[in-house]
Amino acid sequence: MRDKAIKWVIIFGLLAIVGILLFQVYWVVNNWQDNQEEKEQRINIALRKTAEGLHAYSKTDHPDEELITRRSSNYYIVNINDVIDANILEFFLINELNKVGLSLDFEYAIYDCDRDQMVYGNYCNISDSPAKPSAELPKYDKFEYYFGVRFPQLRSSILGDMPMTIILSAILILTLTFFTLTIYIILHQQRFSALQKEFINNMTHEFKTPLSSIRIGADTFLSSPELRGNARLNKYARIIKDQADRLNMHVEKILDVARLEKDQFKLKFEKIDLYHLIEQTHERFVPIVEEQGGVLDLIMPEPSEWLMVKADLMHSTNIIHNLLDNALKYGGKPPELLIHVIDNKNAIEIHIKDNGNGLSKTEISQIFNKFYRSAKGNIHDIKGFGLGLYYVKQIVKLQNWTVRVESEQGIGSNFILSIPKV
Ligand code: ADP
After folding, report:
1. pTM of this prediction?
2. CA of residue 248 to ligand 1 center, whole Å
3. pLDDT tier for residue 381 given thresholds of 50, 70 and 90
4. Which of 82, 154, 271, 377 has the smallest set of CB atoms within 10 Å of its CB?
């Protein structure tokens, strides 16, 4: 994926994460508040009914001031006009809380105005979960006769009433963690791949200068009359030249791919004669194939106007070279190769066939990927960078051509270039 595309994926990904998180927080808070309000309403009803019960019992009137005061999230004060009996209060509390369907533990204390302190009543364990009594309940100086009730499990019971919210939030947090981790890995990989590209680029550029010096040196050496007379020195000078040329070809290949990726690649479209290009390539490869005891056949129609196409000469030559190089490398021993040019209605097809081991379907789907080398390549100890077919694919795309492979395992492969007619 291109760097820009990755950047946008990450930006949209992060925006999506923030958006989903905000929505989730809003939803959880809303859900919590609804539950809390609903519980508070029921507590208020139960406490009001308890107060009414106490007044009816002692035959007194309601106080004029506010009846119920919420002192904290789970502590309530109830204002009463008379002395309170703990047993009767507990009876009413249990009864009224039960009526509104609240099976929460609660503890209560009654204010003793003589001693000016809260006298602890009882911890009523309704829910059967372990009791959590507090040391004392705080008093409230505003009233004279009152009692306080605390619900230690109020928060946990609100949470308990929203299981779906909790489960969905947990799933969401897990998904978002996974997504964030993926983004982190992508960023890490991107940085690593950028460093790798830069390193390869710098390294190959550094190779170029000494390589051209060696090639110039070898050329001068080979053309000197003294050397021509000395067979042994001549042989070594040729080896230096050949190896330097090979190394230069590899460096060029890597640089070409690097340029392709940097979008610095400009094709020079011109009218090229495929007939000549293929004939020349064939002539160049025949001695190499024959050296290995093989054959390289060519079937091509007579030169004609339809074999003239608009393309980049150098890169078109390179891709046909790459395919033939591969046919030779991965073909049978001895190689039996064929270049077959076919007039296929609207397209010219160049078939490059070999008699190698062939490729599996999985391999075919991957061979045009950068750095891909099938395991067989290594088994036969055939060296390469896995860049040749990647380069072919990119050039073919830029020229509006196509490339496909037909292969049968144990029989051979056929790489087909399809070139639209102009
Ligand atoms: P390289 O040859 O440097 O490994 P390529 O990109 O040219 O890189 O090829 C990628 C892989 O595709 C090779 O490693 C090889 O496994 C497979 N391949 C390419 N051409 C052929 C072929 N003609 N027959 C069988 N396998 C091939």
Report:
1. 0.61
2. 20
3. low
4. 271
